[in-house]
Amino acid sequence: MDLSSRDATGPSRRALLGGAAAALAATAVQWTPLGRIPAASAASTLATPPSFPASISLYQQTFQNWSEEITVDGLWTCAPATPADVVTLANWAHAQGWRLRPLGAAYSWSPVVVDPATPAANTLLVDCSQHLTAVTVHPASGSTPASVTAQPGVTMDTFLGTLKTAGYGLTGFPVLGAATLGGVLATGGRGTGVPATGETKLAGHTYGSVGNLVVSLTAVVWDAGSSAYVLRTFQRTDPQIQALITHVGRAFVTEVTLRVGADQRLRCQSWFNITAANLFAPPASAGSQSLASYVNGSGRVVCIWFPNTTSPWLRVITPTPSQPWTSRAVSSPYNFPFNDIVPKSISDLLAEIIGGDAAATPSFTAAQMAGVSAGLISTASWDIWGWSSDVLLYVRPTTLRITSTCWNVVTSRANVQRAVSEFYAAYSAKLAAYAAQGLYPMNGPLEIRVTGVDDPADCQVTGALGAQLSTLRPRPDHPEWDTAVWFDMTTIPVTPYDHQFTGEMEAFVRSNMGAYGQVHAEWSKEWANTPSGAWTDASVIAGAIPDSYTAGQAAGDGWAAAVATLKTLDPSGVFSSAFLERVLQ
């Protein structure tokens, strides 16, 4: 996407937020799949894929990602009913010279599913969300710990709800419940949490990525002996599984078994009267209201700071077996309904920004924070208590559509406050420098989370191997780097100068925090930004990103090894795209 002209002329009038500014006056910005056109319909605009398997439903549908910045019209799409159908599709695609792109809920920002540069004529979306949705819990039995087996199209809402009913849960996971498990695993999805001071991790849980709990998985891979694609199951001790746990869309996993542990009751307290200056204070002056202090006390902290405001929305989440008398018990997720509502006062300000009045940004971000504080009070949600998924899931598809640029810094627990303090100082200074020029590239919140890193032992498989492309992969040469600090910068799509701003911040993170940690981009978000757009910094794509997965790893166990495995399992690139070929080189 070439965004240089956008920066000069102002935002596009494309329907990025569910319509023009007038549509934003509604109470919520809805997202629904774009219309389907059956293959046999007269409205079909593309030649039917040659010799397509008659037993698999086929139709055309426009692909659109979460932020609506990637839109490809009329892609051929199909809905396999079984894993065997995916094998049939892979062999068909190999014979016809087509490519298959696994499709879940499309709740991503990056082109890992669909690359706008890929010709629609030879790309087929394979929708997992219609039929490949089975999930089965295997309760603990004797010496065998509990696990869950699921297909990639199951939503996190259904997946976590099924676990909850059976008495199991996860420590951390992405907070958008409409996302699919397959997408979460492919991009290294994670949540929030490290052990609080004195806390002991529960068996079957991890503070790392969801993929760190993988016990085994089944994927469609090339079999040289039969010269065909087949289903193959990989155990956690198989060297090739290291590239498949987090495959960034370069493979097709049809089933996965994950270790799980007993569900936890959590208490979530929200604060909006702690200043950013105290929360992000330099380590030398940090006190009891510092982010590191809250992390040490509860282990689970989410900080959402709207630019140009004084105090963030701080959520402190603590394992709490019994309900505190001040907490409100909840029995279902999404307990911050104000997070899904765009009041007219806020939508009017947003309309001004979309219309070209960037100077309205400080008022807009202040109104967003005012809406949070008022919403917490009006819905009595400032102190809630319930099972893990009921407390942690809070983002619905109706939430205001924003675009996101995110990195993490894998570092030591002792460096958490240093990292957030340095980022806050640089971010604030850069916002001020842009504002002095009348520019306001960031109008969404900065979100900060802290997680652990992957520990293969968490899956309780002797000899388990780690995920080579996980953004939470540890550094063997730095065992003290046991924590990851996540910086997620958001803004309304097509805000002028946003990619220039985030590119400069990315350079700061890599150069400054690389001195005491390992920097990774989050696969599902925007990264490698330049003024021309996301994923356009060739030096980051060809250098910094591969290096971040190779530095400090054992010989032959870095980026190149993962890429080589993915190519070995799919030598014809049936599960690839132009974008992935540029990244996974």
From TrEMBL:
Alphabetically ordered keywords of this record: FAD, Flavoprotein, Oxidoreductase
Xref: Pfam families: Chol_subst-bind (PF09129), FAD_binding_4 (PF01565)
Top-rank taxon, per record: Bacteria
The FAD-binding PCMH-type domain, residue ranges: 69-263
Keyword Oxidoreductase on entry: yes
InterPro entries, alphabetized: Cholesterol_OX_subst-bd, Cytok_DH_C_sf, FAD-bd_PCMH, FAD-bd_PCMH-like_sf, FAD-bd_PCMH_sub1, FAD-bd_PCMH_sub2, FAD-linked_Oxase-like_C, FAD_lactone_oxidase-like
Protein name: Cholesterol oxidase substrate-binding domain-containing protein
Organism taxonomic ancestry: Bacteria, Bacillati, Actinomycetota, Actinomycetes, Kitasatosporales
